Amino acid sequence: MATGISVGRKSRSIGQGPTLALIPVLTWGVGWVYISKSITLMGWKSTLLIELLVTPIVLVVLTPIVKGGEQVTLKQIKKIWRLPILWVAAAVQMLGILAVNLGLNRDASETAVIIAISTCYPALTIFLALHNLKERIPPARIAGGLIGIAGIVVLSIGSR
């Protein structure tokens, strides 16, 4: 289920994936503050370059720690490497990182608002899950998401 919420007859639970997704709340919350400061000190180009160089190194180091039961072979990697959707996804992700860095470069005093707005992307994921995967989300959860987005709008307006 793309929304990560399992609703059974007797219980409701959040899956392991969404639970692990709480880690970025802390790491990205702290990381973006340091990135904003780095952009102020050395510009967005140098900061982005360091981000993009460090990310693969961290992933290589962490892969053995987070690897599940899957078997990854060189043949599979070569096959995946040739998938056009992988390149499209990578390019779109890099454009997103670039846009946030440019936003922080243009107005570092608005770091909280810029990051809050950039983290609204799950709203699109939920919409796609509802539309394309025919998932259902209770109205209370949709209302909670809308209230969160409204809060970001208030943050943005209130900071002017």
* Structure annotation, total helices: 8
Mean pLDDT: 80
| SSE sequence, one letter per element | EEHHHHHHHH
Record field, number of beta strands: 2
Strand content: under 5%
What attributes does this structure have?
160 residues; mainly alpha; 2 strands; globular
Tell me the layout of helices and strands:
Blueprint: E1 5-7, E2 12-14, H1 16-20, H2 22-42, H3 44-66, H4 74-81, H5 84-106, H6 111-118, H7 121-132, H8 139-158
Helix pairs in contact: 2-3, 5-6, 6-8
Q: What do these coordinates show?
A:
By secondary structure, this protein is mainly alpha-helical. It has one domain. The chain contains eight helices and two strands. Strands 1-2 form a two-stranded antiparallel sheet. Strand 1 (5-7) and strand 2 (12-14) form a beta hairpin. Helix 2 runs antiparallel to helix 3 (44-66) and helix 6 (111-118) packs antiparallel against helix 8 (139-158). It is globular and about 50 Å long. The N and C termini lie far apart (39 Å).
